[in-house]
Amino acid sequence: MRANERYWWWVKEKKQMALVLFMIVTLMLQLQMKGCVGCLKTERMGLLQLKSYLKNGFKVEEEGMMKSWSHDDPSSDCCHWERVKCSDATGGHLVYLSLIGLTPANYELESQSLNLSLLHSFPRLQSLDLSFNKFSDLFDPINGTVLVTFREEPSFYFVSLTPIFLLHSTTLN
User: Fold this and answer.
1) Residue 113 CB contacts under 8 Å (≥ 6 apart), including other chains
2) Is residue 101 a contact partner of residue 133, using CB atoms and an 8 Å limit?
3) Domain ranges within the chain, ordered by starting residue
4) pTM of the model
5) C-alpha to C-alpha distances, 53 to 44, 46, 67, 114, 131, nearest whole angstrom
6) Distance (Å, whole) CA 134 – CA 113
7) Where is the Leucine-rich repeat-containing N-terminal plant-type domain positioned along the sequence (predicted)?
8) What are the φ and ψ backbone dihedral angles of 104, each rounded to 5 degrees?
């Protein structure tokens, strides 16, 4: 082999290595971008409906605890809103929702009901934090059942949704 032929062979090998490296980097970037899905439109709309419901029955103010839940900016990613967590492992679905410390608008009322049909927009919701609330029951008007009724002062701090949706009509003491 002459020196000129060796040089071109070396250049050809380097080009092939560069092409393989470029393909690997491109594939990695595509996979990484698919993992960062962001907020799903149906879940975003579900959160806004939940906020509207809570504003009517509870002391939830625009300037207060759900300020980031806004319909003004349609490109706003609800996965970055306060009280909400999403998971890339579930395709960007909402997996955690915190409804801590909601005070009924009419504080003379001893308790308030939570309409669970508002949670149907979140099919992958794994955890619902209901700490420091005065819910008398959790009801689902779509199925027409009261899922959980509390006889005494509700003192639960954390509820996993999977067992709740398996219950049809249960009374807790």
Assistant:
1) 135, 136, 137, 138, 139
2) yes
3) 1-35, 41-172
4) 0.62
5) 14, 11, 15, 9, 18
6) 8
7) 42-87
8) -55, 145
Distance (Å, whole) CA 57 – CA 158: 21
Q: What are phi and psi of 18, to 5 degrees?
A: -65, -40
Both structure tokens of 125? 């919701």
Give the residue-averaged pLDDT of 39-51: 91
Nearest to 123 by CA among 156, 86, 82: 86
Q: Of the given ranges (16-25, 125-134, 160-169), which has the lowest mean pLDDT?
A: 160-169
Name the token pair of 124.
């992958």
State pLDDT tens for residues 57-94.
776 655 566 788 888 887 788 999 999 999 877 788 99
pLDDT digits (tens, 9 = 90+) for 134-147: 766 666 565 555 44
